[in-house]
Amino acid sequence: MSRLYEVTEEQNPVQAWCDEFYMKNGPCCAGCDWWQGAYFQFGECTRTEPVTGHPERWSLVHGGNFSCFDVPETAGHIMTPLSHHCGEFKDEFDWQSLDTRYLHRIGFVEHRGVVR
Questions:
Q1: Domains of the chain: which residue ranges?
Q2: How many CB atoms lie within 10 A of CB 111?
């Protein structure tokens, strides 16, 4: 995930939420270097080319049905739920560069070079 190097839950609660979700659930958008969390449950996949508008952008999130949400109808990258996993997943972030208290808080475990 495109992330801040020095982050605390107070500085960026969305980042902390996504990091903890990734540590608990394994490879998914929440931990992907291509993904930028915009909200607690979904964000933009910057691996994809920008698309023209609402239907294309939001089709992977709740089937694009957002009648009860106020989401922008602008062009941009495809929005995906944080739990989504595709063949483009990438995690090259140096997790050990973060404060050990933060790593403990999010449940960081390194296993055979793969972060989970």
A1: 13-115
A2: 7
pLDDT in tens, 34-78: 999 877 788 999 998 999 877 788 888 766 565 555 666 788 899
Residues 43-81 as b or e (16 or more Cβ within 10 Å = b):
bbbbbbeebeebebbbebbeeeeeeeeeeeeeebbbbbe
Supply the DSSP string of 52-99, one letter for each residue: SSHHHHHTTSGGG--TTS------BSPEEETT---TT------GGGS-
Q: Give the span between the Cα atoms of 77 and 63, in whole angstroms.
A: 16
Q: Are 43 and 79 in contact (CB under 8 A)?
A: yes
Q: What is the pLDDT of residues 5-24, one digit of tens each?
A: 455 556 778 888 899 999 99
pTM of the model as a whole = 0.78
